[in-house]
């Protein structure tokens, strides 16, 4: 039996960061991975999706800027897009990711890890003992919805959609959350006819205007968006995949992508062996520890708090800090449903903290201030399209509790809002943080003006 | 004699904002302008320079993104760039700017305003009386350096460079501050042969790495940068303009642009009539009031605090707030030399607060942390080039006191740093402001890592 200070199960972004930080601090660390080091994010999610979206987004921007537009007369080069995507995902080989771990002295154990007792992880016939702690970072996989026939049509999930070597002539997407919306945009810009089955609408968890603006742009690009009715059956035959909706209508396409959410990979982790509920997300405390098990941490998607790579890495810092005696707890609205998030559609959607709906549900009395993302001097020359910035000010505490910004290339606008919220900077103090002219960040100035400060 | 609550002299961005805010609050306001409503910024500086730079910057970005690069095989369309520039500056007609004032009930008086007594401004034969206050917002104009022959060669200043209808085959630029560096980039990308006489180097007031990176990019684009020696004489003849440098070398070009700084338009404002020093920048207190003259405010470039449009607008809010009995003072390092600033070169330079040099001069003990702007997942697909982010942490107070970020399209990164500095958010709290993956804002995460928090 090999013995380590810490055994990490799962080498996605959360597991990697936790293992790296612990090893850098001098602990002996083993990390167990049955698939690819780097995880879903590096190979089948964040990275390849951005590689598919970025070229189209940038060309759209160029076409709005006279002088540059005339130089960009060609269309997206699809093989080049896919080829660059393949490079960025290392052609699905994790060899490029391993050195980050091994350079830090982390022992990589290939195979599926499973708890077989307190502080004990089995990988095949081998058992790894953890003197200090076990960190589970098993992540999630695509959830398949309960639709008649779904198991017989071999549907795409995010994995196939992000790594496809050919663009199907037509694609039907079930679900219009982040994955469904991003892939609808990517595939329509890459030349597919796309039908988006949006049920409750596009991006239903974000501010209404965000989903509406993305839906409008998708429709302009030719995406057929169907709302209000859910798929009830799906069949595949020689003509492709046919989805029947609750209202009796049908959609036929060459391929189907299921994008209806994620399910934790908690089964077969051996949680029940140590008395922890073994299905669904695993509950943890503010230190990412499983209540009652002072040696067991769960980070990343698996704890269900905030299914984002950046939050997995944040939780990795919290768990490893706790193990190293440098405790830090998730706080200041940085965690959970208010976590910062960016959806890389056109327009992009960048949000942190509450939406109007979630603030209401939380019983907060907020002042809602909307300004145009492009309605300033910075917007006049930069090449952006439609966009809105919504600020939610807590009336009692005089601080921001939520910001949503839509528009072209607004992903990098988010950190300012996140710092304002996490720092709980009073709006009267924020007013002295002057955005430079002529940048689109002057949306902050318009926010101050609307507030009358 | 017409009487108003407030008379504003100068309808640049500062004067406009002050007049607008006062009129919106119900005061009667006259604004006096002898040139264009909108000022230097709208017609001869911020706006046309961005219009000249943006197309080239965007094309450069596109050429770094496989899939989009193949669509952009043409070159910059110079007439289209100039045409769009002309649109954005209203073809040098301020008719589009006037309604912003008149809609708010501000009286526009055309002509040059001059103090002729306490609370009295003459415009030609007319005298306007100000019951409450006079705000001077006269701005600056290009300073001509003391070079033998300069008065005889009819040199370009920012005005001619930003509004040129033809691109000269060759251009020599004296001075490599913001105007010189931006115009060097614009003109080389528009097809001119450019020589940049940089004296102390490119962007000497910013971090060394910023100037070096911009200089390297300019050199790559073909700009001939001469440092270490200053112009001593200039002559124009049939072959163009010849500049002689202190080391005896010469440069000949079709046109010369002087970009060696700004001088306040304080002469002929009548300041001496009310006993105020009438040359150079006019000193003001934290309320933008001239000491000893409780009715006289000076905002924008004219007070010399921070020569930026956004700071003029900020000072306009301070002065008008004071007049309206809602006092707000410039504070929290938002004002003065630490004001936020963006230089729209390639790479862009975005900075707020101290540089390493200014922090040292101020006697601060700072920890300097450098990370790569593009050295993260966001940089892998977005199309950026070289870039560095420098964070200066005050060791005693544990807060940021300066940030400089260089890179592609980093202008919008600045507001996060500005909020962190103005909000005096401790770095241990900042650590919970998690940048989204995969954005380039993860440079903040790398900063936290380097700090070991």
UniProtKB/TrEMBL annotation, chains A, B:
Domain of life assignment: Bacteria
Protein known as: NAD(P)/FAD-dependent oxidoreductase
Taxonomic lineage: Bacteria, Bacillati, Actinomycetota, Actinomycetes, Micromonosporales
Domain named FAD/NAD(P)-binding: residues: 4-319
Entry keyword annotation includes Phosphoprotein: no
Keyword list, A-Z: FAD, Flavoprotein, NAD
Cofactors that this protein relies on: FAD
Protein family (similarity comment): Belongs to the class-I pyridine nucleotide-disulfide oxidoreductase family.
Ranges for domain Pyridine nucleotide-disulphide oxidoreductase dimerisation: 340-443
InterPro entries linked: Class-I_Pyr_Nuc-Dis_Oxidored, FAD/NAD-bd_sf, FAD/NAD-binding_dom, FAD/NAD-linked_Rdtase_dimer_sf, Pyr_nuc-diS_OxRdtase, Pyr_nucl-diS_OxRdtase_dimer
Keyword Cell membrane: no
Native source organism of the sequence: Paractinoplanes pyxinae
Pfam families: Pyr_redox_2, Pyr_redox_dim
């Amino acid at each position: 039996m090999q013995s380590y200070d810490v055994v990490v199960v799962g080498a996605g972004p959360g597991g990697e960061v936790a293992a790296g930080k612990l090893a850098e601090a001098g602990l002996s660390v083993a990390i167990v991975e049955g698939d690819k080091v780097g995880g879903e994010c590096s190979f089948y999610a964040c990275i390849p999706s951005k590689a598919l979206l970025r070229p189209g987004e940038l060309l759209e921007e160029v076409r709005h800027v006279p002088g540059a537009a005339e130089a960009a007369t060609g269309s997206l080069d699809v093989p080049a897009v896919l080829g660059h995507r393949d490079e960025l995902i290392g052609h699905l080989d994790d060899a490029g990711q391993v050195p980050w771990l091994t350079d830090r002295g982390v022992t990589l154990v290939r195979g599926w890890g499973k708890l077989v007792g307190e502080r004990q992880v089995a990988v095949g016939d081998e058992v790894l003992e953890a003197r200090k702690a076990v960190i589970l970072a098993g992540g999630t996989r695509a959830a398949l919805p309960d639709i008649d026939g779904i198991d017989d049509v071999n549907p795409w999930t995010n994995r196939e959609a992000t790594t496809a070597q050919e663009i199907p002539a037509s694609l039907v997407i079930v679900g219009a959350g982040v994955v469904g919306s991003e892939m609808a945009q990517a595939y329509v810009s890459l030349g597919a006819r796309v039908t988006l089955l949006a049920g409750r609408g596009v991006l239903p968890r974000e501010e209404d205007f965000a989903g509406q603006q993305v839906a409008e742009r998708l429709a302009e690009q030719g995406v057929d968006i169907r709302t209000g009715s859910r798929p009830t059956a799906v069949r595949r035959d020689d003509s492709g995949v046919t989805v029947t909706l609750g209202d009796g209508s049908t959609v036929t396409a060459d391929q189907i992508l299921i994008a209806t959410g994620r399910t934790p990979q908690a089964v077969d982790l051996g949680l029940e062996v140590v008395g922890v509920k073994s299905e669904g997300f695993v509950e943890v405390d503010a230190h990412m520890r499983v209540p009652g098990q002072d040696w067991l941490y769960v980070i990343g998607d698996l704890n269900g708090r905030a299914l984002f790579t950046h939050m997995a890495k944040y939780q990795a810092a919290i768990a490893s800090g706790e193990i190293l005696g440098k405790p830090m707890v998730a706080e200041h609205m940085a965690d959970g449903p208010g976590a910062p998030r960016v959806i890389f559609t056109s327009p992009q959607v960048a949000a942190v903290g509450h939406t109007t709906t979630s603030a209401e549900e939380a019983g907060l009395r907020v002042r809602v201030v909307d300004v145009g993302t492009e309605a300033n001097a910075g917007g006049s020359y930069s090449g952006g399209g439609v966009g809105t910035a919504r600020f939610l000010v807590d009336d009692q505490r005089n601080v921001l509790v939520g910001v949503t910004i839509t528009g072209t290339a607004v992903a990098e606008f988010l950190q300012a809002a996140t710092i304002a919220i996490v720092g709980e900077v009073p709006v009267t103090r924020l007013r002295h943080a002057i955005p430079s002219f002529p940048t689109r960040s002057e949306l902050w100035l318009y926010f101050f003006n609307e507030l009358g400060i």
